[in-house]
Structures are given as structure tokens and as C-alpha cells.
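Each field is listed here:
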Amino acid sequence: MLDVAIGWRFTRASLLAELGGVSIDETDWDQTSLDLPWRVQLPPGYEGVVWYRRAVDLPPYARTSLALLVGPSRHGSYDIWVDGAEVAEVGSLSRILPFPQPRLIRIPDAAARDGRLQLAIRFHRVGWLSEAAGPAAGPFEGDILLGPGDDLARRLELADLRARQADLVPFLLGLAFVAIGAYHLLLFSRRTPERTYLWFGLGATAFGANTLLLTRWVTEPIDHLAFTHRLTEIAGHGALVALLVFRWRTLDRPVERWLRMYLMSHGVLVLFLAVAPFRWVWATDPIRVSWMIPALIAAPAALVAALPRGHPDARPLLAGIALLALAEAGELARRFGACCLTGSRSRDSRRSWPPWRSPWRSASRACTRSSTCSAWTSSAAWTSAPER
């Protein structure tokens, strides 16, 4: 098994340039490695196509059933050529941000028969996302391995199994909330005057959808980072609105003017998430997460205010909020600790920060979202490659 992350040449090119062929003059191309940061290879803010090429000499015993195992990439789409033939297309111009996960690319036996492979990668780099990822970000996370296809497939299957096992509890939790929400919506359809069924049903369904969309069980098959991120954020804001209205109706409180304006602001944010360019959606994550904090303060405050009046639902609801706060505090500590651990090892393993790219974003999302493993679990589960 060979780590082929080193020994590449690269050049910037136009979108229409076809440089994946066999007889391409690379004398003017710069030398690089796929594990080097973008800042070493490209000028700041570069957005466009980058071509990588290298040749690999194969021993006589390793010329059949080969595959290429490529680590997750968070900064664009890419295509792979072997001996002038395109063998893989990950993402496209219309879906330039596929879900970051390891990919296994099978190598045709005919290409390896002469003992030499000519590899080429065309990378569509999204400049703003790459710059936001920090100075250590590069084209791929982890090693680029060339070896027996069956062995690499088992390695990928093991990494995927570990990542999905880590996401199993949040996935089941999301399904449970969706089922609970659907049940309460069914109750509302039979008892339409009971609006609390409606708001709790909508809130539970949205909360469950938000949880499901943060697990690999859903995001990996969809394989579209921008689409799943938008849906996750829309579900999160929708759950907040529905559950706040449910809380106020449960306590028999009128919806005050300030609360009505606050709920309307989240409706505006949902519209923004649906139509705004994904760059704006991504950049405003910390602001929108911070805007959820008033709801996290107002809900328990309303319950505390209802305690002296002896409202029968105030005490159990407040106990539930306390348990949720403890659970989210544990999730915050776990995820923040994982972020710091990943960051401290990035020099050796070349693993970058999680997709939120900062402790603040990881902390804020852990406080305001359901307990989940993020998309970066794929790199955390990535099995270390052999020494070069």
C-alpha cells in the first residue's frame, strides 16, 4: 500500500482546460504535495480550477484490482483521471460542495498493466470557504492511498462503520422526535381546538429533522453539503419558533409584542436561509446561533415565573429543561475537548479543525443544537496510513 500524497505537480488553469491526458507537458508546473496547506500552493482568495498530476511506478505483483482511497475534502468538487481517462467525479459545477467523506476510486486493470499510472486531479476550489477554514486547510484531509482495492474497501468500510456507530444514538433520537411530532400532529387533526398539539408536533418534527440532518446516516447519502446545511439551519429555527409558541400556550400566557417580533425575526431568517447564497449562509452561522440565545433565556424564565402561580406544567417542564441543559453541557465539553485534541494533533496527522473551524463555533452549536457528531467524524475515524 502506497501513500501517494507527495510527488505531485500542480498548476492553475481555466475551467475548460483539459489537462488529464497522458501526454501533458508538466515542465512549467510547480511541485507540491496534496497534504500541504492551500496557502503554500495558491495566492490568498484564489477561486477556480487547480490541476494536480503525478506518475506512479507499480511493482509487477501490484498491477491488478487497484484502487485509490482519497480523504475527505471540504473546499470544492474534484475529478480524477487515470492514464487520460476520467474515473471519478465528486461533485459538479451545480453541486460544488459534496459532503466531505473518504472516497474509494477503482483503477481499471488496463491502466496498470504497463506498470505505470499517470494520475491527474482537477480540483474546483471554493476560495471563500477555503480561506475561512484557516491556514492549515488543504485540498484533502488524511492520506491519499494507492493499493489493493479490497483492502482499501475494508479500511473505508471500517472507518464508515465507526463513524455511523458514533452517530447511531443521535440518529435514533431524531427518528423518535419525528415520530412523536407526527403523533401529536395526528392528535391535532382530530382535536383542532387543542393548538398545543399543533405547536408541539411541529416543534418535535423540526427538532427531529435537525438532529437527523446532523448525522452521517442522512448527510452522507444526500452528499450535498450546502443543501443539508440549509435544511439543518431551517429546521433548527423552525423548531425554536414552534416550541416557544408551545411553551407560551402551555403556560396560558399571551404572546407579547416582543415575543411576536422575535418569532417573526426567525421567520425572516428561515427565508434568508432558503434563498441567500450559501456563502452568506455559512458566514452568518455564529450570528444566527447567537440570536437563539434569547429564546434559551426566555423559556426557562417564563417557567420560573409560572411556579408561584402553581401552574401544573411549570415544574415538570422546568425539570426537563434542567436535564437538557446538563446533557448539552456534557456535549459541549465533549466536542470542545475533541476539537482541542484534533487541533493539537493536526501537525502529525494533518487533520484540520472541524467544519465550523473555531472553538467558538463548535461551542455555540453544541449549546444550541441537538447532541450529534458533526460531519468531521469521517476524518476522526480515518485510520492512519502506513509510513511513507
About this structure: The beta strands are 2-3, 8-13, 30-32, 48-57, 66-70, 76-82, 85-90, 103-106, 116-125, 145-148. The longest strand covers residues 48-57.
